[in-house]
Amino acid sequence: MERIEITEKIIGCAIEVHRNLGPGLLESAYEECLAFELQNSGLKIERQKPVAVVYKEIKLDCGYRIDILVENEVVIELKTVDNFIPVHEAQILTYMKFAEKNIGLLINFNVTLLKNGIKRYVY
Prior knowledge:
Blueprint: H1 3-21, H2 27-40, E1 45-55, E2 58-70, E3 74-79, H3 86-99, E4 103-108, E5 118-122
Parallel strand pairs: 3-4
Antiparallel strand pairs: 1-2, 2-3, 4-5
Helix pairs in contact: 1-2
């Protein structure tokens, strides 16, 4: 499956979750439901995948985790915030860099219309 197909499938699953739950819940509830939808659609996922910080060729386990990694290719970072702020973008780009993944989706479920809460990143 190509990356564009994977991201389209992910976005479709996120829209389904948002359509059913709406805004206002905790991030953990959206993560659980999105994981269910992704698996149900046939995608392979890993939740709370550890990401080592690389410093001068040393890998340090600092407790960073990707919310959901899909098909070992797409990093998903979930939020339930009023608005994205620069640190959210920095966070997903850092996870993508250290995990050596080229595509990421930053998804904010705390919006009225989910398409306004999705940002796609290519590293």
